[in-house]
Amino acid sequence: MNTFQKYWSYINRIVVEEKSTPHNSKLIVAIQNGKYVLNTKSANYSFGSLHRVFQKTFKKIHFIQKKYTTCLLLGGGVGSVPSIFYHELNLALKTDFVEIDSEVIGLGKRYFCLSKYPLLTIINDDAKCFLEKNTALYDVIIVDLFIDLDVPTYFTSEAFFISIKEKLCEKGSLIFNFVAYNYELKEKAKAIESKLKIIFEAPKFSTKTLSFEGINKVIVVEKIKLN
Known about the structure:
Elements: H1 3-8, E1 14-19, E2 27-32, E3 35-39, E4 44-46, H2 49-60, E5 70-74, H3 80-88, E6 94-99, H4 102-111, E7 120-124, H5 127-133, E8 138-143, H6 158-166, E9 168-179, H7 183-199, E10 205-212, E11 216-223
Parallel strand pairs: 5-6, 5-8, 6-7, 8-9
Antiparallel strand pairs: 1-2, 2-3, 3-4, 9-11, 10-11
């Protein structure tokens, strides 16, 4: 972006590119408040409110102190989470970045420097298929899988969460982002937390829900240290 665009974007959003894909009916790259963001028709996918949600989540759970070395990010978008890892927290965290939409990956490389992180492996695949064929284990798995504002049904199912548990290291953690913009989805978020408490049973694991930006419910599952 040029200097005029940067400063004008604090007054009016500047749309840089729009496109539709088989996975997203509308993707909008815009300059807002001096930076590029990726939006859909109804939601921010990367570097807007979603970015703030993960910034606040990582701060709240003291992510930097966990000393994770491997991460699986399901639903990478154009790279908000890696940007936080590598630019803001200065982590040496090897991350497998799974994104189903190749056009989103292309936008990430074109506008958001997605290809410049040496510890990031970009994988263009469906999250379900990736979990079925991948054998690696991870210290932390972050789930940020949306179509616009909604999480596809499979990715809130017991089968999905069991597959996640199988891919976690013994002391691994899960961070699951969910948007609850109405009463029905708020109740669903509670049901998801209850489901996770059964799959990741106490006292080995703790499960809690953090609330941000009015509608984001971030469910965090962590291994508890037992003396």
